[in-house]
Amino acid sequence: MAYWLMKTEPGSWSWDDQVAKGVEHWDGVRNYQASNNMKAMQIGDRVFFYHSVKEKKIVGIVEVCKEYYPDHTDKSGRFGMVDVKTLYPMTSPVSLEEIKAHPDLQDMALIKQSRLSVMPVSNDEWQIICEMGDTKPY
After folding, report:
1. For residue 121, which of 49, 69, 28, 16 has the smallest C-alpha distance?
2. How far, in Å, CA of 128 to CA of 99, rounded?
3. Which residue, 8, 18, 55, 108, has fewest beta-carbon neighbours within 10 Å?
4. Which one, of 42, 82, 46, lies nearest residue 63 by Cα?
5. CB 115 within 8 A of CB 40
6. Helix (H, G, I), strand (E, B) or coil at 19
7. What tens-digit pLDDT sequence spans the chain (138 residues)?
8. Cβ count within 10 A of residue 59
9. Whole-angstrom distance, CA of residue 2 vs CA of residue 77
10. Which helix (H) or strand (E) holds 93?
11. Could you tell me the strand order of the sheet in which 23-26 lies?
12. Considering the entire predicted model, what is its pTM?
């Protein structure tokens, strides 16, 4: 199992929207590096659901339930999407500020590549953030 983080603007797609839907496609990604990260995702991989813009915090965990396939919103045919299913919220959402303050998270892509919308998360980073959010890692 691999771990990831996906960013969303809560005004466009929020944790509450995801919970209400249960399973939804993650479309609209138009960055090649983010798209390549989604291509690497496999069924069962876990994903931090991150609210960007003003909130800047990890609010929940979803699971990849359908691997990369063509994005119906991309007219060029170059980009794809994955489907994710809701697992559970973070008991205590973990803010970007908290992540930046943690000495063992300084190499995290969320800090190093702050504009990337889909990024890998190492096993150690996953464990630390779950602990910070008082949330079970599996």
Report:
1. 49
2. 9
3. 55
4. 46
5. no
6. helix
7. 999 999 999 999 999 999 999 999 999 999 999 999 999 999 999 999 999 999 999 999 999 999 999 999 999 999 999 999 999 999 999 999 999 999 999 999 999 998 999 999 999 999 999 999 999 887
8. 20
9. 27
10. strand 80-95
11. 23-26, 80-95, 57-70, 46-51, 3-8, 118-121
12. 0.96
Task: Write out the two tokens for 70.
Answer: 């063509």
**CA gap 42, 71 in Å, rounded:** 17
Q: What is the DSSP letter of 13?
A: S
What is the C-alpha to C-alpha distance for residues 38 and 82, in angstroms, rounded to an integer?
Answer: 7
Query: What is the four-CA torsion angle of 134, 91, 1, 117, rounded to 10 degrees?
Result: -110
Widest CA span in the chain: 43
- Structural tokens at position 129: 């953030």
Supply the CATH classification number for the domain 3-132.
3.10.590.10
Type of residue found at 45: D
Amino acid identity for residue 124 in this structure: D
Q: 16: which 2 tokens?
A: 């509450």
Tell me the domain boundaries of the chain: 3-132
Q: Which residue has the tokens 């980073």?
A: 125
C-alpha atoms less than 13 angstroms from C-alpha of 62 in its C-beta half-sphere: 32
